[in-house]
Amino acid sequence: MSAYGFAHLRSRRHHPDVIEYLERIQATLDPFAGRFVIHGPPAEVVEGTWPGSMVLIEFPGLDEARAWYRSPGYQDILRLRTDHIEGDVVLIDGVGPRYDPTRRAAALRAEAERTERPAAPPAAPH
């Protein structure tokens, strides 16, 4: 199942280090079959606010995403971005092609019902 590296970048600066980061990042992704799905275009905000830009990188799985992030090649260029751009980065599993949100809803409903039930009173001693 695919996994993703998602970045919400709140402050963008076109510092020379950031340009170098962009020039070098694909070479760090290639060994882990990472590919850009979204890379910072302005978003059409239809609910709430969205300050900044976003980046979404797809990997074959979470193991590859973790290995890429921890790789010496990526760690070597990471500061080129983090020294100049404020943001958050997460690694997350995707859902499979047969994902059904109604099953997730049923599981959440069952969990909520378990936690909302009052505890049974203690049994009276005999």
Write the layout of secondary structure elements.
Layout: E1 3-9, H1 16-29, E2 35-39, E3 53-59, H2 62-70, H3 72-82, E4 87-93, H4 101-116
Antiparallel strand pairs: 1-3, 1-4, 2-3
Class inferred from helices and paired strands:
alpha+beta
The low-confidence parts are none
Query: Proportion of β residues?
Result: 15-25%
Separation of the first and last Cα atoms: 56 Å
Could you give the count of β-strands? 4
Strand order of the largest sheet: 2-3-1-4
Q: Count the helices. How many?
A: 4
Largest sheet: 4 strands, antiparallel
Helical residue percent?
25-40%
Rounded to an integer in angstroms, the radius of gyration calculated over CA atoms is: 21 Å
Please tell me the overall pLDDT.
Answer: 92
**H-E string:** EHEEHHEH
Indicate the overall shape: elongated
Polypeptide structure, described:
The chain is an alpha+beta fold and 126 residues long. Helices cover 40% and strands 21% of the residues. It has four helices and four strands, in the order βαββααβα. It has helices at residues 16-29, 62-70, 72-82, 101-116, and strands at residues 3-9, 35-39, 53-59, 87-93. α1 runs antiparallel to α3 (72-82). The longest helix has 16 residues, at 101-116.
